[in-house]
Amino acid sequence: MYGEFVLTQQKIQIPRAGKIYAFNEGNYLLWDDKLKKYIDDLKDPGPSGKPYSARYIGSLVGDFHRTLLYGGIYGYPRDKKSKNGKLRLLYECAPMSFIVEQAGGKGSDGHQRILDIQPTEIHQRVPLYIGSVEEVEKLEKYLA
């Protein structure tokens, strides 16, 4: 099946919320304080007694697929080394955002919808936060 797509499920709908987050926390010290606060709060059990689960594989497609199926949020933020983020808008972030929106989720750069960003160059890089609507909107409030 080389060079073919395999449909594993028809009409995937991402849960509106989820308790899984996928961020490369190895870069935590390079993030801004608002993002650090968001991640720290996800780890706090709070009133429910259960913190979010960290599930980061390091494969955009694998992490994104799990997020589609179970809900939650995948993030690849900007940091002190990569001021604009590392993922490319046109051929990484926009296609994933289109897919997640078709499944009922949301794709954002932390402040605006990925699909509303007007590209200024072909290899333009942007931060990416993608997943369940409630989880992405929660992150956007932290970054505001």
From TrEMBL:
Cellular-component GO terms for this entry: cytosol
Catalytic activity: beta-D-fructose 1,6-bisphosphate + H2O = beta-D-fructose 6-phosphate + phosphate
Domain (Fructose-1-6-bisphosphatase class 1 C-terminal) ranges: 14-143
EC number: 3.1.3.11
A Pfam family per the record: FBPase_C
GO biological process, one term: photosynthesis
Database matches in InterPro entries: FBPase_C_dom, FBPase_class-1, FBPtase, Fructose_bisphosphatase_AS
GO molecular function: fructose 1,6-bisphosphate 1-phosphatase activity; metal ion binding
Enzyme class: hydrolase
Pathway: Carbohydrate biosynthesis; Calvin cycle
Superkingdom: Eukaryota
Cofactor(s) of this protein: Mg(2+)
Keyword flag Metal-binding: yes
Swiss-Prot/TrEMBL keywords: Carbohydrate metabolism, Hydrolase, Magnesium, Metal-binding
Record family assignment: Belongs to the FBPase class 1 family.
Subunit structure: Homotetramer.
Protein name: fructose-bisphosphatase
